[in-house]
Write a structure and sequence with these properties.
Layout: H1 3-25, H2 31-52, H3 56-61, H4 68-71, H5 73-88, H6 103-116, H7 120-128, H8 130-137, H9 140-168, H10 180-204, H11 219-234, H12 237-240, H13 270-273, H14 278-295, H15 305-312, H16 316-326, H17 331-348, H18 357-364, H19 369-380, H20 384-396
Helix pairs in contact: 1-2, 1-11, 2-5, 5-9, 9-10, 10-11, 14-16, 17-18, 17-20
């Protein structure tokens, strides 16, 4: 691909980024996260143009744009991280301490300020020394920026992982809150960063073959812009509503069951240190299992741990500990085991013989056939259809 073709693609991508940035900035819901993403796309778009025209001739014609490309990338990592944090946080409000993420930007700005204040003639004289300018391009500052990019990219991936673990402990149906698109986006961005860092050092050390990709690696950035643009237009709801876990006020905590007077004080345990005794855990566990058996709350496909805790009358964090530590499961696994057992009963019950697989799934508490099949097979090592056939065959030919 010629340099001219690359420049055309990068400029076209920057225009796309500009339009997408404007769309996201005007979204009325989830404002903070959308504006952070809007700012990130805007800056990356401008940076991609600078990368496409990163030639001595261009900067000699526009000397005041030189070294701007050293400053802007210091914002990319923090904006990516904060965008991810606001989408996955239980409380996405802005915190004062989060301004600290922009410390690298301000430090680099102060470092470069003497250069920015120079006259056009002084900058052109500097750029005329091609070897010196090239050496500085691959100097310590830009190497630190590479480390900054990778660090924030990894931090964003860890936030996604933490969010995925959290929803398993809070939701019985994760399809609506899984943020699969966000994980795909962060992974795409991270590998684009990783490839860019590889090309940076290939150029710095004059490695054969890889050096030829310098400048062209920004095509990955354009792919990211077009990808997120496609998502914004084809699935606008993911940018319009808050996707973070909503913090719900805790219900009033019921008193813990009192131990009999003749019972010796138990040894301190992890439950006591968290404000709940072993005796209370046993009582809560029994209460929970009875409620699940009698009331069948799992048939509500959108059941959350908060709703279940309120229905039983215990604190959410106590219920979570009972499920996690006494049963050894997360909330998603706990509820879906009940749903699978209910589905197993329905699959062989004569009154439901005319039901489709989807109807059985909905009756048991699942809200999609795909989730039902996946969870059922994971717990039984067979599909619902195979299980029904096996059970019917066993009933027809008893041993």
């Amino acid at each position: 691909m010629s340099l001219f073709a690359l420049q055309v693609i990068l400029v076209a991508g920057a225009v796309q980024g500009l339009l997408l940035s404007a769309i996201l900035f005007t979204r009325k819901k989830n404002v903070l996260a959308n504006r952070l993403l809007s700012m990130l796309i805007l800056l990356v778009s401008f940076q991609s143009v600078l990368a496409g025209f990163d030639t001595r001739e261009f900067f000699m014609a526009f000397p005041h744009l030189s070294k701007v490309g050293w400053l802007l990338p210091s914002l990319f990592g923090p904006l990516l991280f904060l965008f991810t944090k606001k989408l996955t946080s239980e409380n996405p409000a802005w915190r004062r301490y989060e301004w600290l993420h922009f410390t690298p930007f301000f430090l680099i700005f102060l470092y470069l300020l003497p250069y920015y204040l120079q006259s056009a003639e002084a900058k052109m004289a500097y750029l005329n020394d091609f070897e010196k300018a090239s050496e500085d391009d691959f100097g310590v500052l830009n190497q630190l920026l590479n480390l900054l990019h990778l660090s924030y990219g990894l931090a964003a991936l860890l936030l996604i992982r933490k969010h995925e673990q959290r929803i398993l402990h809070n939701f019985s149906e994760i399809r609506k809150v899984r943020l699969r698109w966000l994980k795909q986006f962060i992974v795409l961005v991270f590998f684009t960063i990783l490839f860019g860092v590889t090309i940076f050092y290939a150029r710095k050390w004059n490695l054969p073959f890889l050096t030829g990709f310098y400048h062209y690696h920004y095509l990955g950035v354009i792919i990211c812009i077009y990808w997120i643009g496609y998502k914004a237009l084809s699935q606008p709801s993911i940018f319009q509503r808050s996707l973070a876990l909503t913090a719900v006020p805790q219900p009033a905590v019921v008193p813990e069951p009192e131990a009999p007077e003749d019972t010796a004080p138990p040894v301190a345990t992890k439950y006591e240190r968290s404000g709940i005794s072993e005796e209370a855990v046993d009582a809560y566990l029994l209460q929970l299992l009875e409620y699940m058996q009698e009331q069948k709350p799992y048939q509500n496909s959108d059941l959350t741990i908060q709703e279940l805790a309120e229905a039983i009358g215990m604190a959410k964090h106590h219920l979570s500990r009972v499920i996690n530590e006494r049963l050894g499961k997360n909330f998603f696994e706990f509820v879906n085991e009940y749903r699978v057992n209910e589905a197993k009963r329905l699959l062989v019950h004569p009154n439901f013989s005319h039901y489709t697989t989807l109807a059985i799934a909905m009756e048991a508490g699942f809200n999609s056939k795909a989730t039902f099949n996946a969870v059922f097979k994971k717990l039984t090592s067979m599909t619902p259809t195979a299980y029904a056939a096996q059970e019917k065959a066993a009933a027809a030919h008893p041993a």
